[in-house]
Amino acid sequence: MTNAPHHFALNGVASSTAAALPHALPACRNAHIALFAIRRMGAGGLADAHVAHAFVGGFGEGFRRPLILIRVFMAELAETATLPIAIAPCCCARMTPAEQALLTVLARAETAPDSARLLLADLLGSRRVDGVLASACAVSQAFADAGRPIAG
Known about the structure:
Layout: H1 14-20, E1 23-24, H2 29-44, H3 49-59, H4 64-80, E2 94-95, H5 97-108, H6 113-124, H7 130-145
Antiparallel strand pairs: 1-2
Helix pairs in contact: 2-3, 4-7, 5-6, 5-7
């Protein structure tokens, strides 16, 4: 993502680590796949081969639709964001507030779109988030259609 940092720098102090990564990883395995894609594409670009490989393994032959839609989602995020989106490296066992918000948006896009819209507006620093919300809804639907709904 162009507006996101390419890596997440930690100050090396335990208290700053807790402040920078305040959220535990999600319990939902499907949210783990989405988080992996967000982290890898945020750092390595939309065509990251590790994400494609993870989606082939996670979705089988039906990997194309969720992969393409999460790429669109990430591109929309980068285009719409007026604020940096803090992402952690894939090896982190905790999440940033921005990552938590993105997973919450993906989980709520279909069931609570007003809540998801407000989260996106706060995260991206923009009131015009309808395109990103539509992309999030499409990702959520693709995961659910593949039997991997993202739980919040």
